[in-house]
Target: Acetyl-coenzyme A synthetase
Amino acid sequence: MTQSCYPVPAEWAERALIDQDRYAAMYAEAATDPDGFWAREAERLDWVRFPKRIKDTSFEEADFHIRWYEDGILNVAENCVDRHAAKNPDRVAILWEGDTPGEERKISYGELKDEVSRLANAFKTAGVKKGDRVTIYLPMIPEAAFAMLACARIGAVHSIVFAGFSPDSLANRIQDCGSKLVITADEGLRGGKRVPLKANVDAALGEDAGKIVETVIVVRRTGAEVAMQEGRDLWYHDVVQAESTDCPPEPMGAEKPLFILYTSGSTGKPKGVLHTTGGYLVWASMTHQYVFDYRPGEVFWCAADVGWVTGHSYIVYGALANGATTLMFEGVPNYPDFSRFWQIVDKYQVTSFYAAPTALRALMREGDEWVTKTSRASLRVLGSVGEPINPEAWEWYYRVVGDSRCPIVDTWWQTETGGHMITPLPGATPLKPGSASKPLFGVMPQLVDSEGVVLEGATEGNLVIADSWPGQMRTVWNDADRFFQTYFTTYPGKYFTGDGCRRDADGYYWITGRVDDVINVSGHRMGTAEVESALVAHAKVAEAAVVGMPHDVKGQGIYAYVTLNAGEEGDVALRKELIQWVRREIGPIATPDALQFTPSLPKTRSGKIMRRILRKIAENDFGSLGDTSTLADPGVVDALIAGREDAT
Ligand code: PRX
Model:
């Protein structure tokens, strides 16, 4: 296979924070002297007490622990807000572009400090204490960042639930972490469509979750009329108005929880990934600075949603820790037209733009003109995140969006890793389209075979990380055992990523996708088991199996095989009903792209579903189904193939 490779442009090698030699030296230092390296990187933050103990970690079962900067004391909001407000109160912290063109807000660091402090005081008034959990269910409005930072300011732990999730998903997450306060909006607005957020919260709190939540704070976004429950629901503008702008940041131990973020795994229930204070912020800040080569004064735009980890680390924590001007966009790339992203780039003179390949593929197929009619001259660096970027989309991004001028950082990482792990650095790494390239400082990737044997040189295998890094998740909320079982038992002594990966002769890493039962839909992680349990919750469904299928825009689509209860008929109407059902149960991102009724599923004699076969059929690849002789009923394969064409 011929591969293109783009060398580092000379001007970049010269002016970048990190060039090739510096990358090599820093990588070596982080490996040989982690304490020295990470103590120095910790100096990027303001500490109440600078840590003496730097790295204290072991992935071994007998002595399993992950602690970074443990005796250090700091406050995340202090670092993201106050220290910049003190020096540059008028510098813009958040540029907000609303869903409707022309709607905008600019929040300076000075204003941010006041907003965050007022809300932090309002949380306290509502009875939220250090260590308590707060669920944030907000659209992409500045109040989402205020709420995150207000939690951090008083030592409360936030759990953001993406505003596209259903009442049921919201209820489960509220219950799992026991939030006593929920902050939401009357409605969200995306692409001109309204999302009934407050009504969703009301539905979520109808049952058990309602017994836990004491207060709901509601931001007025669209002005829609919503029901307010006496004694529980309060308007945001009322509560903050009553509060003072003085709220001293709570000194926090470096290993105290900062946030929980739920993510899908191979089992049915999403797990609450827990990140802590010191290591996470060092990691978010360091990666934001080096990977985007961020310079003060530049406008940084991460086009993700704050409901996902990308938004946590790069719209809010990493960017603000570095005193950046961060852009927050409420809308979608195709509203009011396909030029929206690039118009925003021009309007705010954006320097770094960071998005998921799925958005790029969707725009790419609408033609170049939407892009080329804008200037984009302010852009310096382009970023990609969330899923493998196919070389075709990469080249389009590079040539058309970046005018062959801007390096692309294809950043591989996960909710669990807190920030970037494997990625090019714009002034140091020659680029190969489709490859996340090289590990960052302190990241020790290895490829192992299914027995755990470490593979050397150019090879392909399962991606593991051999040692801890500061941004690593610390536990699964309330389930330390699940944390250990999920990540450290498949290959003992190593963190298992769940991804497959190839390494080429130049030592570049190429992520090939998940090797577990997780699918990546539009850069979002969806557990197949979650969709399956939603399907079997329907009265007519006996059994379901869900796999990923290739999808031009989404990367992967959701393909569901459904067996109905005896006497039920799988017709077009029921297919539609089931697809809508999943959408309602989990949220629009879980909507199956294809649903096939089948009299039975391919199972081994011990009853295990052979997903390999289901994946091949979903891919329309009937020629390489592999060994089907271990099936309890090999005849099922013919029935599945025969039913394939009715699936969509
Ligand atoms: O499979 C990898 C894929 O997304 C997974 C992590 O998903 P999530 O926790 O939702 O975080 C997404 C945002 C960081 C990974 O296990 N993934 C993420 N980035 C890339 C990627 N696959 C290939 N290339 C990437 N740059």
Q: What stands out?
A: The chain has a mean pLDDT of 96. The pocket of adenosine-5'-monophosphate-propyl ester is lined by residues 263, 309-310, 384-388, 410-415, 436, 497-499, 511, 513-514, 520, 525 (CB under 6 Å).
